[in-house]
Amino acid sequence: MTLPYYDIFGVGAAVRSFMRTLENTNRKTGRTTRTVEQVQPGDVVVCGGNKTRMIYAYELKRRGLEVVGSPNHHSYRNVLLIVDRPDPDRDLLRAYPQTDGTIHFTHDYVERVYGDAVETASKRLANIRDRWGKEPDRTREPAINHIDREGFN
Prior knowledge:
It is built from six helices and four strands, in the order H-H-E-H-E-E-H-E-H-H. It is of the alpha/beta class.
């Protein structure tokens, strides 16, 4: 694997790999069940996609909670389920009315927020390098090889 020239240390690749490993090892560990058990009437659940929203709606209804999908119908007696795409340019708090309840984030939403942050950081590094520098000449031999040959190990 060739690392991007702006991340020769492989930090972005390592973080992405860790996130994939974390996501895969956390499957079937009860994340959804734990979150559903914490939700009370008046709370808001922010989901990362429609599939997750449907799962939460089903599980919350099984617990006897009333579920609504519109902020206009949200009250202290029901649970509002929101499907949202994390966007650093949009303030989620301004998009929906304030609640007196707790806000719960589903695992897919949290993973998406962190994943987007890694992608944003990678793009920022690439943009800085592209605007202020140039890609290094990869045909040159690394300086460390000259030192090794001369016996400075």
